[in-house]
Specification:
14 strands, Rossmann fold, 6-stranded mixed beta sheet, globular, 2 domains, alpha/beta, 43% helix
Length: 371
């Protein structure tokens, strides 16, 4: 018998108390989450909260959080997770033990990350949250070892769309579709700004990167729709700003007449923006100059958009992913529920027209105290 059985919690009362999400998070288009308790006048959750608190109060959920690199993007996501964890602490009395670890400096340092995960498996954590440059084949044994010990593996920000979900040995994933929600969106933005024709540079992740593969698929879909949109140069920017700057500077020196630069992630796009400045070229002003777009959704990127040094970016749901990660962990570990295998969050194309709203959401997430 589960903890919630025999406590007066029926399917009907659950639906009445929290019809959209039994565990307190309703995902909205901007990636925000509103708990039923916070939605005054919509849901009466006092009885529901009391029942869940009785079932889970005092329970500790031990979490390990490992991104491929410590960066501004993953910091936003982790702080959103802290916001949701504290929400459940306040409402239901569940507590959290939170560890963070990541390989240093190299986005593709999978061996070091696997050692981190193995140590957490040995330590017997409840939930391991993973974003790794490894493929489903690389992680198969590791994840199976974790599941054999009853550990929940939740992958995040991964290009799961590249693989058959049945082959991925995680418990579930939280993320977005890199093909259709990132690569395609960026390409479509460039095409529309340039009237369907022009010269484009790509500043890309390392050769063999799974994110690069997925986003390229989406971008190629746009190139097929707009045959007069030409890629005239592509270089490895290593997913970091300084390498993105060097790569863009070299390509721009050889191709000063380009119309757009697509930085596969925002760090590289910001590096490309610096390269435009260093060479005395012009940023897009609405009718001419170089269009630049990235993807992640960083506070530094939002400021660059306001200043006209970055035309746009794609906020890939860093806040939404952080909220959803903890929602899934709570549902699985505290309430014994089965989560969907794939949990994609909304993303948002960010320009000068809407940057303030997206920025304020992330600023809210960053106010969270660490667990």
């Amino acid at each position: 018998m589960s903890k919630t059985e025999g406590l007066g919690l029926t399917r009907r009362s659950l639906f009445k108390a929290a019809p959209a999400a039994a565990f307190g998070a309703v995902s909205l288009a901007g990636g925000m989450a509103v708990t039923p308790a916070a939605a005054d006048g919509i849901f009466d959750t006092a009885d529901y909260d009391a029942v869940i608190r009785k079932a889970v109060e005092g329970k500790e959920i031990k979490v390990g959080f490992t991104p491929p690199i410590l960066s501004e993007f993953f910091d936003i996501m982790e702080h959103a997770a802290f916001q949701q964890a504290r929400n459940y602490m306040d409402r239901f009395g569940v507590t959290w033990s939170w560890e963070r670890a990541s390989p240093s400096g190299d986005f593709n340092s999978v061996e070091g990350q696997y050692n981190i995960i193995q140590n957490w498996i040995t330590a017997g954590l409840d939930v391991i949250m993973v974003c790794t440059a490894g493929t489903y084949k690389d992680t198969e044994k590791l994840y199976n070892d974790a599941r054999a010990k009853g550990i929940t593996i939740i992958q995040f920000n991964m290009p799961i769309e590249l693989w058959d979900p049945a082959l991925v040995m995680d418990t579930c994933s939280v993320g977005y579709d890199n093909i259709l929600q990132s690569g395609y969106v960026a390409g479509k933005f460039i095409a529309e700004k340039l009237g369907g024709k022009g010269k484009v540079l790509q500043i890309w992740g390392p050769s063999g990167s799974i994110w690069s593969e997925a986003r390229q698929k989406g971008f190629d879909m746009v190139l097929a729709e707009y045959p007069e949109l030409q890629v005239v140069g592509l270089a490895d920017g290593g997913y970091v700003r300084d390498k993105g700057f060097a790569a863009a500077q070299n390509l721009l020196t050889a191709n000063p007449d380009v119309n757009a630069i697509y930085g596969e992630n925002e760090e590289m796009a910001l590096g490309a923006s610096q390269a435009i400045d260093s060479l005395g070229l012009s940023h897009w002003d609405g009718s001419q100059g170089i269009v630049t777009i990235g993807a992640d959704g960083l506070q530094s990127g939002f400021q660059a958009i306001r200043e006209g040094r970055l035309t746009a970016t794609i906020s890939v749901g860093g806040v939404g992913q952080g909220l959803k990660l903890v929602e899934m962990a709570f549902a699985i570990r505290a309430l014994g529920m089965t989560a969907p295998k794939i949990n994609n969050v909304p993303v948002q194309l960010v320009t000068k027209d809407n940057v303030d709203g997206v920025d304020s959401l992330q600023a809210w997430a960053l106010t969270a105290q660490a667990l």
